[in-house]
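Morning!

As promised:
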Amino acid sequence: DGGITQSPKYLFRKEGQNVTLSCEQNLNHDAMYWYRQDPGQGLRLIYYSQIVNDFQKGDIAEGYSVSREKKESFPLTVTSAQKNPTAFYLCASSIATDRGETQYFGPGTRLLVL
Amino acid sequence: AQSVAQPEDQVNVAEGNPLTVKCTYSVSGNPYLFWYVQYPNRGLQFLLKYITGDNLVKGSYGFEAEFNKSQTSFHLKKPSALVSDSALYFCAVGAPNSGYALNFGKGTSLLVTP
């Protein structure tokens, strides 16, 4: 988990509310990723960013939004359009997005719906 | 399209015995293969990866994995299991022509009993 921080550890969302999950890295990595983990389903890619001010949708981007204004930061907003947001959210970073670079993960944020 | 399969939801092994966690993959071209471990409510920790070269890859905590191109497998192994190895293990695959994408398996829960 070293070098990548996620906050908060637990987050509660009310109906119709947008919430933002924080992800910061001090590894000087260009690429950053957001995954969603549900029991028995492995990890599914939500969004990724190869460079500042650029990001791409992953497999399950609907109901989520991101920004990449700084190299170190890649916040994820779970919007009210995401009807089933309860999950464990993992942020990762890598030097680049290709050449088999290793992705390093943060400790995760667990999102629960009230 | 690329994919990875972990055929066992759970593997049970006695402490001191060898362990194997299975992974098979499907990809166009030469694969990049990764193993990660996850402890409860934590992020994923990188164990090892295969990019090219020697088919036997050694990683952290005494784990190793063997790349077998003919069987499209990348099984994780350890000669002598520890109780502390009990965790959730994920295999992931990428490819040079897939850019960012790492596809993760659904995970295998390893339980090592004293």
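The interface with chain B takes residues 1, 4, 6, 31, 33, 35, 40-45, 48, 50, 56, 88, 90, 92, 97-100, 102-108, 110 of chain A (CB under 8 Å).

Hope this helps with the figure draft.
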